[in-house]
Amino acid sequence: MERLPASWYAAILIRKSRRTFHPRRPEEDKIVRLEKLCATFQPFPGARAELVRKTPDEVFKGLIGGYGRITGASYYMAFIGAQDAPNVEAAVGYTGEGLVLEATVLGLGTCWVSGFFRPDAVRSHVDLGPGERVFAVTPVGYAERRYTIKDKIYRGLAGSAKRKSVGEIVEGILAESWQEKAVEAARLAPSAANRQPWRFAAGPGSLTVRTDGAKDVGRYPKRLDCGIAMLHAEVGAREAGVAGHWTFLPAPDVARFEIET
Ligand SMILES: Cc1cc2nc3c(=O)[nH]c(=O)nc-3n(C[C@H](O)[C@H](O)[C@H](O)COP(=O)(O)O)c2cc1C
By CB atoms within 10 Å of each CB, which of 14, 22, 62, 195 scores lowest? Predict the structure, then answer.
């Protein structure tokens, strides 16, 4: 895939994590479309997604301490990375979010889960190559039309509706209009516990993403969240008519987007 699909911008504006699903199965053509995208959308080496034609209920079963129990989805996707690949966390975040946005375009519900799932259950469904690990999963299916009380509690606990202001996440000023569009799209990205650990710094024709510098906690790497925000930023830039490419950078920076002139 050369350019990101224009339809992903509208998906950014409406996507929300969904945790309770309806028994109705997604149509076969939608699932085939996601399977094909899993096979083709691999923009960085060492990161890929796989659609699993099984309910993820087993993947979430019996876990204590996880937040946001997820129930009833028809299928799920596994977001996989080669453990030793450079920048694997950001690459998995970027790649997985592409699949999440495409599922949103298709009217399907999703919810990133990177901590509390059973890797052993996923491994029994997915063939992993040498050195590969499952970094996260998402259910895929039709979400219940209304939020259940459980959903509202989890959304409330994570403060899911709240996003940091542009001033809180940008160092300096955004002098170019595409940069504003990119940061606005990145602000809407999902992140573990909605912590929004991304920070942005703009230069002439460029936008650098870094983490907020605080240490990672447990199984929730901030560079994965930042990879998700990178994809959103690029979709925002595209919406503003700008294309470019990413270069990964050493921590605490994550990557720099430079526009094509
Ligand atoms: C990497 C990652 C891991 C997440 N892990 C969980 C999880 O374990 N359980 C859960 O209910 N939600 C999880 N979420 C969803 C976040 O809570 C959610 O994205 C955030 O609160 C913002 O809400 P929104 O996605 O509806 O915009 C995760 C999100 C990301 C990006």
Answer: 62
